[in-house]
Amino acid sequence: MGFKVVKESEKHSRVELIDEPDWVIGMQTLTMGVPTCLSNGVALVVAFSIWSTPDREMAYKAIEISKKRGIGVRIGLLPFDYPEELSTWLLDSDWEEVDLHVQQGDDASVELTISQSEGNSPLWFELHNGHPRLLGRGQLSEHKIDEHLRRLKAAGQKT
């Protein structure tokens, strides 16, 4: 059980599921569009950096919480390589860019530090009839994930 990220080309990755329920949907990078199976109804989408182990663990945690509690809300797993790939879903967002610091040393050496604000990913989206709404960023508690899943399940039952 679980999933893996398959890098299909320089710009395209996809999630391949390993023995997961049918309500877990492995997605491709957003350049491929929203899968048809997520264009109607509600779903929780976890957008995670393909390079981040903590992000992947959070995505898997959402699946496990839903299984354990019998919630069964559709969960989309959306991989991204660069934050810019999510720009179509984060139009008016305050995505924090990567910080780049260059420092010249005394011995003609250069120190380059690249960092990103902690807590920027994964990104949690509610998808309603194919339209995303950002719910939050970063590591969420089990309670918060459960809360999102239950709210989405209730919303799905109304439609």
State the helicity in percent bands: 10-25%
Q: Kindly name the structural category.
A: alpha/beta
Q: What is the name of the CATH class?
A: Alpha Beta
Mean pLDDT score, rounded? 84
The CATH topology annotation reads as Glutaredoxin
Total domain units: 1
Number of helices: 2
In quaternary terms, these chains amount to single chain
How does the major sheet shape up? 5 strands, mixed
Task: Report the principal-axis shape.
Answer: elongated
How big is the Rg?
17 Å
Tell me which CATH architecture applies here.
3-Layer(aba) Sandwich
Strand order of the largest sheet: 3-5-4-8-9
Order of helices and strands: EEEEHEEEEEH
Describe, in plain words, how this protein is organized in 3D.
With 159 residues, the protein is an alpha/beta fold. The chain has a single domain, classed as Glutaredoxin, CATH 3.40.30.10. Helix content is 21%, strand content 34%. It has 2 helices and 9 strands, in the order E-E-E-E-H-E-E-E-E-E-H. The strands form 3 sheets. It has a 5-stranded mixed β-sheet with strand order 3-5-4-8-9, covered by helices on one side. The protein has a two-stranded antiparallel ribbon with strand order 1-2. Strands 6-7 form a two-stranded antiparallel sheet. Helix 1 crosses helix 2. The longest helix has 17 residues, at 53-69. The protein starts with a strand and ends with a helix.
Keywords:
159 residues, alpha/beta, Glutaredoxin, 5-stranded mixed beta sheet, two-stranded antiparallel ribbon, 9 strands, 21% helix, elongated
Topology:
Layout: E1 2-7, E2 13-18, E3 24-26, E4 42-49, H1 53-69, E5 75-80, E6 99-104, E7 110-115, E8 123-128, E9 131-137, H2 142-158
Parallel strand pairs: 3-5, 4-5
Antiparallel strand pairs: 1-2, 4-8, 6-7, 8-9
